[in-house]
Amino acid sequence: MNQIDRLEQDDKQSVLASVIRELYALSSGSTVSLINHSENLTYRIDEPAGQQTALRVHRIGYQSHENILAEISWMKALQQDANIQTPQAIPGADGELIQTVRMPGREDRRCVRFQWIDGKTPEETDQFEQLIEPFVQLGEITARLHQHARHWQRPEHFVRQCWDVEGTIGTRPIWGRFVDGPGLGAGDRRLLNRCADVVRERLHHFGRGEDRFGLIHADMRLANLMYHQSSIRVIDFDDCGFGWFLYDLGTAFSFIEDRPDVPELVNAWVRGYCGVLPLSADEEEEIPTFIMLRRLTLLGWSASRGQTGGLAQELGEPFSKVTCILASQYLDKFST
To answer: What sign for the dihedral angle of Cα 205, 211, 214, 217?
Structure first.
């Protein structure tokens, strides 16, 4: 049984719930319920007075204490400076925003309690017409994030991961090596390596100027928007870091890169984005490169997380095969 499974078992036996109650001085009538098991563990805390909050238990070995503080600081600044509603961190009983779950015989886990965000996530429907407006809105709010990031004076010791070439498709990628995707043969790996070489070369020429590279959400897709009345809230900043601003466009098409209507949805995203910030002609030309970069990065993720269950395991070999088709199409367009 792995660490996450043990934590789930402990939760069922109320051990973890008791630890959380102590960390946050919760009343005995509070309930702690697991609501999402993916990269992290997310719990809902219900208090007798009716208040709801969310608790994220971080997976081991991904984010440091400093990294989590940086994430919290950007989320706070976005809400204060740019009027973009994000979940705000709630301190524990000792006044600290980051708490540590310690249980005998278990490895320590960092956790953060957040305000509960009401809203509904837009559905990634097969009905193309129903996705146009959500992608326009996604592009617009992504531009607002980037606009803030370009001018925000980051706190001292602000530390986050970097989604550059090395961090995505390099020799030591953050999420895993794309060539280890499930079911890949030798010919598939050669194809993907050729594709990655073209992506690297084009990104080298594209450059990392301040107008193109900075602080990004790094998982800016419809699943991380919450619609509530007339407002749109942004959630899940766990992957935020430094990268090309257009990488956030690539993330908008995560897992749906092979939809036939992607060009129309890209146009919708660009329309929303350009209502806030401009995109140059050469930036628009590289949009397929950033979609391909994200797809290769996700293939590495599926390889490194495939044994842990969940979506990565569900994707399996078909995800690798479709990635090869997309890589071949990309090479047809851009290889010389």
So the answer is: negative
